Structure formats: C-alpha cells, structure tokens
Amino acid sequence: MIRVGIAGYGNLGRGVESAITQNDDMELKAVFTRRDPAALKIAAQGVPVVSLADAEQWKDRLDVVIICGGSATDLPAMTPALAKHFNVVDSFDTHANIPLHYANVKKAAGDAGHTAVISAGWDPGLFSIARIYATAALPVGENYTFWGPGVSQGHSDAVRRIEGVADARQYTLPVPEAVERVRAGENPALSVREKHTRLVYVVAKEGADRARIENEIKTMPNYFDEYDTTVNFITAEEMKRDHSGLPHGGSVIRSGSTALGDRHTVEFSLSLQSNPQFTAGVLAACARAAVRMNSRGETGCFTMADIRPADLLNMTGEDIRAHMI
Amino acid sequence: MIRVGIAGYGNLGRGVESAITQNDDMELKAVFTRRDPAALKIAAQGVPVVSLADAEQWKDRLDVVIICGGSATDLPAMTPALAKHFNVVDSFDTHANIPLHYANVKKAAGDAGHTAVISAGWDPGLFSIARIYATAALPVGENYTFWGPGVSQGHSDAVRRIEGVADARQYTLPVPEAVERVRAGENPALSVREKHTRLVYVVAKEGADRARIENEIKTMPNYFDEYDTTVNFITAEEMKRDHSGLPHGGSVIRSGSTALGDRHTVEFSLSLQSNPQFTAGVLAACARAAVRMNSRGETGCFTMADIRPADLLNMTGEDIRAHMI
How far apart are CA B29 and CA A32, in angstroms? Predict the structure, then answer.
C-alpha cells in the first residue's frame, strides 16, 4: 500500500481524499493543514489532521505527499520545503514560472534523495502530454489549445474583487467556429479574441452600480480586455442553484502534414463535471509514479513528460501488455 | 544525428523514409529488403539498399532499425533476429500475441544489450497510451475504442481472396449514435454490430456472380459476419479514382465517475489522410526514444507504455518545460 499524505485541504485536497478511495493500492495516512488542525473536519474516517509545521515528524510514515495549494504563493514555498522530507506531487500551473519552480524543487528533492512531480493535472498535465505526443508523431504542424466550457476560478476571483460585487462566476467558452476550423485542418492564425469568449454571472450588492461593474469587468487588463465578454446579473439564489459546480474541460488539437502532403489531425479532449475532482485523480496517479520512480533511484524533479505511462497505472506490466496495449 | 535503418520497403517503410525527412536529428543510412536490392528503387537519394541477409554487417553503422513488416509472419521472426544486432522499433499489431512477441524480443534484445520498442504506432501505440492515461486518471469507468472512418487493409485483402473479385477496398465506419452515447457518458453495453459497420467496394471480374460474392463477403466468419456490411460493386476506374488512399483514424473514449459522483469524459481522436504515413511518424519518434533509452542502459523490450513522453521529442528538457508543459 502506498501511504499518502495530503498537504492543503481545499477543493483539490478534498478531491485527492476522494481519489484515494478509488485507488486500491493507496491509503490516506495524514492531512496537513496551515489551519488549526483541531478545527478542520475532513471526510476520511480516522485519518489524523496535522499542523503543516509538524509535517517533518511524518517523514518515515508516508511514501508521498500530494500538495494541494495555490500556484501564486503556496506551492513555490511548500513544494521545495516538503520535498526535503517526502516524495511529493503538485499541480503548479503558472506556465511561465515552471522553469524556476522546477529548479527550486529539483535542488530540494535531489539533495534529499526524493522524487518530485510538479505541474501535474490536466493543463499543465494531460494537455502537456497530448501536445508532446502529437508533436512527436507529427513534427510539422501547429498545436492549438482550447479551454472550456468551464469555470475559471482565477477570473471568478478577479470579478469578486470589484466593488459592489457580492459573488461571481466566470465561464471560459471556446469559440465553436475556431474549434471547427482547427479540426478541419485549416491551421488558422487565431487571435485571443477569436479563440475564446467569456461569460460572467454576477450577484451585485444592493444599490451597486451595475453599469460600472459591467464596464470594470469588460475592461479589466489581461483578464477580460482582450475577449468578448458577456455579463449577466443574477440573484444569489440563482447563483447557488445554477452555478455551484466547477465544471471544466477543453481540447488540445494538432493539425499538420507528413512529408508527402497528407494531412492529419490529433485531438485530446476532456469534459469534466468537476475540475478539482478530476485533477485529483491525475495527482493520485502521479503519486504512484513518484513512489515507483523513487524506488528505482530516479530522484530529483520531474513533470508528466518524464513519467512512463505504465508507472501511472495500478497494473503490472504483464497486465498492461495483455489488456491495455 | 541518429543513424536509422529501415527493414522492409512497403507502404510503411516508405512512410518512415519520408518521416525521417521531417526529423532534423535523424538520417536514413540504409534500407534492408528481402527483395533483390538491385531491383528496389527507393525515394531517398544516395541511400544504399541492402539485402536483409547482410544486415548484420551494418551493426556498427546504425543506431536503430525501424522494422516495417507485417504482423502475421514477418515481425515475429524479423524483430527478434534484428534485435540481436540493433536497437529496433516495430509496429506489431496482433493484440492477442503481444505478450508472446514481447517475450521473444525481450530475450533477443536483452541478451545483446539492445533496446527494442514493439507495437508502436497508433493502435497499438497512441491509442494504448490514451487508454492508459485515461484509466490512470479515472480508475472507475469504461474504455471504448472506435475505429474509422478508414481503410482496413486486412479486410480488403480478405475480400480480394474471394473468387471473382479483381480488387476490393473495405472501410470500417464507427456507428455515430454509438459514439455519441459514449461521449455523453452513458457507458452503454455495445455489441460488435452496434459499434461499427463495414462498407466494401468491389471490382468484380467479368462474368463473376455478384450475388455470390456479396453473400460470401457478408457471411465471412470473424471478418464480416458480426457486422452490418454494405457491398458496392464499382469499376476499376472508380476504384483507382476514389479509393486509392489509405485514410484511417478513430477515437478512444473513457467515461467514468469520481468518488463524489461527478462524471467525466476523456477522448483521444485521430483523423489521418494516410495511415502508413502517420504511423511512420510515430515509429520515428519511438526510434529516437529507443536510442536515448539504450544510451542510459535501459535495454530489453518495451512498449510505448514504458517510454517517457519527453524521450519521443527532438527537444531538450528545458525547452519542453518552457514551451510544451
């Protein structure tokens, strides 16, 4: 049995807790939190909740820790710190900072003889892998990534910070015509605006100026100003009833030509009712791979690009060859 | 530069020859054939054509040999024989015999300190990998594989062996309603007949009994009797004009639930204008991986399940982390 710890108990941490119940070779042994452990109720029965400050005391009792923190400030500190004591997996998803995060984690994990898998999940993660396989098979071509339909938590949070907004939910939507052109092999040049639209549901505070809120959303730099954005004001009841889930998904599509001129399209798509629940399943699989890699002496920092697919699966090589190949 | 040999110069061998031109780190050094080398004209300029019987003489001049033979009789003999002298890649695709082929190749390659990758391509190959990733991420669910629309060469050959048939082309077609039910997450139980239909174009010899030919096709055990099959008789000119390509493709779809009841669908799809040209691109990428694995001392027999995605790509780890993850 792979003895797993979870560090951080938000949506993703709860997702990992439930993912472990679907993996027969894993058991949850501890949940680490920065909150008061006595005040944190978790779903798993009989699993200790421990202060993150005391994590080191568990270093001989866990095979791997899955770190479920945010990429902005949590993971850059937590992953190198925990990699000193454990094999670790995180879902660091600030694409531009992956090289720096990799270097920091590599040093910590490498020095300690541990195995760290960073940037696991679906993007980065399964989508990265899809880009790699498609590019390897079809070196001359173009990769496109479409996100959604799905809830972007970062964009939802950005809208919630606007004065007069009580609650908000932002859906990212791929533009169907753009997806169809890519699927048809046109290899179009697409602007940011041509690839995705944004749809925002807002619960306004009483007396708030809705026109101002809508304008602030639509002109917000980086988040919304380059997109066609629709803003709908709804009630708190409607928000709760219709928008309490965290669905997401998207597609990686590569279209290109082989040397004699034949055209080919490779597509990998996800449709997810719960982004954190699915992401957690990928993290659990990567935790298994991290433990196996560590047992073979493969220490340091890795992404899913460095993981043999077979290491993700709770099956023997024989069974994989007989049933999955 | 990776020095590549090709063994076998049919559709797939020609595909590998053209795939190498799209991979800047590879050069074609020799083509091995069982035919008379003097009589075989190849497209590549200045590349020697060598009798397969003399392949061993090239053992210090090649980094890897891509074996482009048929799975029924060629590869079971050729791959273990060539693995004694070279790192090798093949596309062995008789799913039921993969464990036996693996054992034979493992012994030959392992004893010689070589690295062999078997069953590369898209199914087995990329589709196998898609099944593995989807199953690892979503352990509770069901995998479905749909093939086509595309030409099945095995079924086309089977029809050509019927008396009175001058030429034939068989298209495998997924049943759209079945694909939609799977995509919608219904996890339906589907019979062979409910998943695919077969469409056959036949050029009959003069005076042949078309009703008998059609009946022999539709009742042919294993190949057609479990399917709804449509037979169209056409002229030799129509065959040449409309059916000279070898398009193929298909989808691997996994649909399942995480532990709190959320449903998710993972799909990997290919749409290929030329099956052998695309398959060859996958084999070339696996040849790169075989050479890298061998240089690290990873000898023996492997499938794509055992290859780190990064090893397939002509990019450094730094570039992969900066641009692909």
Answer: 57
H or E segment at B49? strand B49-51
* Topology given in CATH for the domain delimited by A126-273: Dihydrodipicolinate Reductase; domain 2 (3.30.360)
Interface with chain B: mutation pick from A11, A180, A264, highest number of B CBs within 10 Å: A264
Q: Please, where in chain B does CATH 3.30.360.10 lie?
A: 126-273
Give the C-alpha distances (Å, rounded to integers) separating A96 from A100, A101, A117, A123, A159: 9, 10, 17, 13, 23
Share of chain B above pLDDT 90, in %: 100
Nearest C-alpha in B relative to A279? B137
B246, B93, B22: which is closest to A137 by C-alpha?
A: B22
Neighbours of B314 (CB within 10 A): 17
Whether ipTM tops 0.95, in short, is: yes
* pLDDT tens digits along A294-304: 999 999 999 99
Residues from chain A that touch B99, judged by Cβ atoms under 8 A, are 318, 321-322
For residue B309, is the peptide bond before it cis, meaning its omega torsion is within 30 degrees of 0?
Answer: no
Contact present, A305 and B309 (Cβ < 8 Å): yes
Chain A hits for B245, Cβ within 8 Å: 262
Q: What pTM did the predictor assign? A: 0.97
Averaged confidence pLDDT in chain B: 97
Intervals of CATH 3.40.50.720 along chain B: 2-121+276-323
- Domain B2-121+276-323 carries which CATH code? 3.40.50.720
Report how far residue A217's alpha carbon sits from residue B154's, in angstroms, rounded to the nearest whole number: 58
B36 alpha carbon, distance to own chain's centre: 26
The DSSP call for residue A48 is P
List of chain A residues whose C-beta atoms are within 8 Å of the C-beta of residue B307 = 308-309
The CA distance from B28 to B64, in Å, is 10
Q: Which two tokens stand for residue A108?
A: 């910590």
pLDDT the model gives residue A256: 97
Across the interface, of A304, A318, A324, the residue whose CB is closest to B99 is: A318
What one-letter code names the amino acid at A267?
E
**In the prediction, which pLDDT does A91 show?**
98
Residue written as token pair 């096709």: B217
Across the interface, whether the CB atoms of A312 and B136 are under 8 A apart is answered yes
Q: Do B137 and A265 touch (CB under 8 A)?
A: no
∠B314-B320-B321 over CA atoms, to 5°? 165
Dist CA B286 CA B304 (whole Å):
8
DSSP β-ladder status, A2-7 and A26-33? parallel
Strands in A165-174's sheet, in edge-to-edge order, are: A150-151, A165-174, A196-204, A228-233
Q: What are phi and psi of A166, to 5 degrees?
A: -85, -40
